[in-house]
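Blinded run. Sample ID left blank on purpose so nobody reads anything into the name before looking at the predicted structure. Input follows.
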Amino acid sequence: MAYQSDVSNLGGMGTVVFELRDWHTPLPPMMLAMTVSTGLVDSFSFLVLGHVFVANMTGNVVFSSFALAGAPGFTPGASLAALAAFVTGAFVGGVIAHRSGAQRGVILRRALFLETILVFAAYLVAANTDPAHQDAAKYALIAVLGIALGGQNATARTVAVPDLTTTVLTLTITGIVSDSRAAGGHDPRLPRRLLATAALFIGGLAGAFSILNGIPSLPLLLATLLLAGVTVASFRLTKSGEEWARPV
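Blinded prediction complete.
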């Protein structure tokens, strides 16, 4: 990179800046914002809809096994509905990706626009019903949010910014430890990995705080506003022909 030698002299902060200003610019900050929204949405689904994730499919597979084994508090219907919705969203995200000429900027703004609409629709349902006690509202929310997050994951996979999948952090956290200096490595993406972990944590914390303080639909409103901001930014920033907007 032309500015790598300049950034290398800035210490830790310079490393963070460089991490956010590599050839994926301006994708890393946008993907981090989407990661925060994931924490918000999954906090809502788990704490309000009852032991079900709409973004973390690993959790749903395990929850389904718990339910089939007879563990209390788990229902296979909710987990399987979330899986089906997620798969549908991933398919839609794949269609968007393959029909967008492989241009990452176009893929991102189309997918974000759709996701924002879906999460906002979920917020309207949550704000005007009692999904914790109304099965119709609960499953409608699982379906809408599962599709939204399935599409987001497909988009993140296509955009392919390393360590910013917007949902799963298992490999990210593994990389933090296994590639650390203490383990004999030299992790070039440590700041990005730490920021991704912090983003999901912050989203989950904010969502749980609002739910536990009596505003269960607020996480979806916050996620909508955050996604809307990223969507606007994507339309403004992804019309260029710069290197980062091109196919991986």
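Unblinding after everyone has recorded impressions. The two ends are 17 Å apart (CA to CA).
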